[in-house]
Amino acid sequence: MSAATKTVRIIGIGSPVQGDEAGLQLVERLRQDKLWQSRDEIEWLLLERPGASLLHHFSGVETVCLVDALESAVHKGIVRVDPESLLAATASFSSHHFGVAETLQLASTLKQLPPRLFIYGISSGSFSTLYHELSAMLLQDLLVKDQIKTPATMLSGS
Amino acid sequence: MSERREVTINVPLLTRVEGEGALDLQIKDGQITALQLRIFEPPRLFEKFLEGRGYEEVLDIVARICGICPVAYQMSASHAMESIFNVAPTPWVREMRRLFYCGEWLESHALHIHLLAAPDFLGFNSAIEMAAKYPDEVRRGLKLQALGNKILRTLGGRSVHPVGVRVGGFYHAPKKSEMAALLTECREALPDAEALVQWVGALQLPDDEQAFISVALRHPEEYPFNEGRLVTSDGLDIDISQYHDYFRETHVAHSTALHAHYFPDGYVEGEAGVPYLVGPLARLNLNVAQLPRQVRDNLATTGITFPSRNMFHSALARAAELHFALLEAIRLLESYQPVAQPFVEVEPRAGVGFGCTEAPRGILWHRYELDDEGKVISATITPPTSQNQARIEEDLKNSLEAHGLDASDEALKLLGEQVIRNYDPCISCATHFLKLDVSRD
Q: What gap in Å lies between CA B291 and CA B300, rounded to an integer?
């Protein structure tokens, strides 16, 4: 399948240093899994500290899935993060700390959010448990085609 | 008659800067009695990490110092190692290193102008607020940033912490078709870069004339990236190996980043040095004649001339350098031919070497001592933000006093943050940003 027919982009976000490697490692593991290798419509991406340039990866596909570490004292395992909650979050705005929330807010203002957006936060847990939880959530979310996560007013071209 | 207040203002965490710092300001009897750019991000100890590492590991380690300007760290280290091994890069390597640097200036300058600095000049709290009213301008910034990142990926394998560089050159030569596609994109982006200079020139930049010393590299034949002699606006002209004869870093209690000072008559222990400026404005002040005719003509139409003593003309200098970087990238890509071996073989040997290149924020000076196997015995890395810190504190004092210290705490805080952001400080590199504490006793 050519790149032009990719409809889903799964993006692992993190850094191999500073203990922020979980998003990168989980997505890399998914990419190598036979279960997921058969899904030709998926483009896999690993982005180290992308900052605002994450926004460039929202175009050209119908669905974007972001996998990033979650700082939480209350959650465990993989947590589905509602994009609306990040759009309403207080952002910090520095280029070193231009994170997912800030990028989503900028993309929303510029009407460049993808039609379907799923965000998975990685909290505490063993790699194996996290991997199986994430894989199951992705399977469920990507099979439910009518689950529109992005308000129509924020879509690119609207 | 204004009231003589005694006030303390604290900005506990500066926003829209790289890294974590704060500004503490004390005003007594209408005078600033204490002003400290307090950098509290923990020291990162990279120089110590490098000790015992082989020369072939150094470039990948120093690239980790910064996600915005990793090329600068790789280039300064490459030149230092190559001087020890007594090898000179081939013309192909030299040109590709300039192209690599074009990518870094494009992405870093586009990011700072559009997302970090422009909101200050247009009255917004953030680029996201600004994007609602200026969507095309913000899109332009993101597009130019993405183009810079693409150049970095093409030569470095990835845009953040690239891995394509080795001592002596690069690990691979991009295919001609890849470079042809990049050339097309660069040509298409040229109107954006030209318009950016006009746009920044038309912004209501504060009138902020100050006396300061500019320091930058100067090369006889080109606008500096990788090579040149160190020159200052008061006439110093030295080899990069003489840096420590005239510039020294010292520790100050309120900062985890070292402060650098300039000693015009040569460093003498116990004597006081003076603050100095590195970065786009310093570079342009010292090298405007080296810019291509197109950039100088474009700048001239803004009505703003260089050299300039207005610190806020840094924004225009940054835009002009972005225009230059794009033109230079086009020039280099037009003549690109792949080579079979994109590097020079090196043989490790013992010695001391120096590297000094122009990071987006100013000169980045490295010194390495290697043993006969090429392992690092000692490393010294002096980033641009360390060099600008004393100048930032001096500028803050001048700017706040010129503005009037009877202004509200909120107004002083905002001005303080704008002054600091104007330097595009990279605190993470220097820790080596901003919380403002203003104290009025």
A: 12
